[in-house]
Amino acid sequence: MSGQPRKRGLWLLFFAIGPGVLGLAADNDAGGMLSYAVTGAAHHLLWFIVGLLFMAPITYVVQELALRVAFATGKPYGAVIQERLGRHWSRINGVVLHSLNLVILVTEFLGMAMGENLIGIPWTLAVISAFAIVLMVTSWSRYQSVERVLLLISALNLVFIPAALLLHPSAQAWRLAFQGGMTAPIGFLMLSLAGNAMAPWMIYWQQNAVWAGRVRTLKAGRADIVMGVIAQIVMAAVVLTIGALTPIHGQVAQNPILWIAGNDGRWVGDLFGLGIFNAGFLAACTISLSSAWMVRESWSPGIHARQELPTRGGLFLLHLLTLAIAAAAALTVIVPSGTLALWAQALGALWMPISLITLGLVARDRRTMGLMAIRWKRQLGLAAIIVLFIGLGILALIAS
Asked: How confident is the model over 73-88, as a mean pLDDT?
């Protein structure tokens, strides 16, 4: 009889997996993983691992707050912002976040193309095929169908683990990886790391995906977020370690995948390239959907059908144009991919205080949230997180 409750618990755990896991897996995107590799190559691994662990509860607090807003309001996030803060702020916020997401999407197509290019696919064909795949998946009619497919695909992120196990670093490589104290350049890298752990688009994704999906209770939603945070931190730490243990020969920021393949061998490079392609694909789908939700809710009146993807109907042209611009930029960009990845994450971190203030104003409002409005202790906690992101921005500014 004891086996029955255990099986039931496993099934409940499986069905709890949803937008929390998917959003946090997608946040370990191609740009994020490339930036982790570049960050790890700077050594100071202890600082970055501690930073990741410090960001874990912060990520949970923010995503759980978005979950609460979804359950309390029963509306998409953009509609909630319009009701509480007005149409003008909703539109400004939507435009800024859409622009930030466009920069991130460029890194996703770069990562996907680099992974394809590593196995011999010409660069132009690699970018075009990446664009076509993302457009096809994000143009389906039902959100739940897309969520299930993307959750299955997210399991491929585990390929970073065998890539790390194949490194066989020397004792000297381990010592070098953990050397170094807090230096000026580390400030910018920490800002980028924070921006990768918690990005503004994730708030929209968590709230809207819960609204559109099948998360039935706060308990299930919280379990989903916890699993997502754990998976995010583990995979980020693995990629940081790969970057830190790879011998420093050549310019890592120019093309991190080729740098790893050249220094660690073809097997490690191929696995890393597959992981980057998968991370880019997963993130390009979720971020573009999140961006479409932002624009639709900010500019289109009324609340749309829960199950209908935001890329359907009149907004399909904007969605197509957004992906096309990002893909075209990936074909022509002259900035080293690693550098662009770091800046894409850092820009998101710089906007996080605004996103968190917006979320806090909604979550503390009793007219909007009812009994689920956050009390003063949670408000102080959120204020501390806002101060942290502002402090990281100032630290990065001083470092530059």
From this structure: 86
Look up residue 199 and give its two tokens: 């990005």
Q: Are 319 and 288 in contact (CB under 8 A)?
A: yes
Query: Which amino acid is located at 197 in the chain?
Result: A
Residue 384 has pLDDT above 90, yes or no: yes
Examine the pLDDT at 240 and tell me if it is beyond 70. Answer: yes
CA distance 50 to 47: 5
d(CA 293, CA 282): 17
Are residues 36 and 239 in contact, defined by beta-carbon separation less than 8 angstroms?
yes
Find out whether 308 and 213 touch, Cβ atoms under 8 Å: no
Which one-letter DSSP state was computed for residue 282?
H
pLDDT for 91-136, tens place per residue?
888 889 889 999 999 999 999 999 898 888 999 999 999 999 999 8
Q: How many domains does the chain have?
A: 1
Beta bridge partners, 142, equal 308
What domain range includes position 297? 31-399
The span from the CA of 77 to the CA of 359, in Å, is 9
What is the C-alpha separation between 160 and 238, in angstroms, rounded?
7
DSSP category for residue 121: -
Residue 137 is assigned to a structural domain of this protein? yes
Q: Which residues contact 64 (CB under 8 A, 6 or more apart)?
A: 221, 222, 225
Q: Could you tell me the CATH number of the domain that includes residue 315?
A: 1.10.4160
In SS3 terms, 210-279 reads as HHHCCCCCHHHHHHHHHHHHHHHHHHHHHHHHHHHHCCCCCCCCCCHHHHHHHHHCHHHHHHHHHHHHHH
Q: Which helix (H) or strand (E) holds 287?
A: helix 266-299
pTM value is 0.86
337/34 Cα distance (integer angstroms) = 8
- Backbone φ and ψ of 28, nearest 5°: -80, 60
Question: What is the number of other CB atoms lying within 10 angstroms of the CB of residue 308?
Answer: 14
pLDDT tens for 4-13 read: 555 445 444 4
Query: Is the residue at 284 inside a domain?
Result: yes
Q: Does a structural domain hold residue 11? A: no
Q: For residue 134, tell me if it sits in a domain.
A: yes
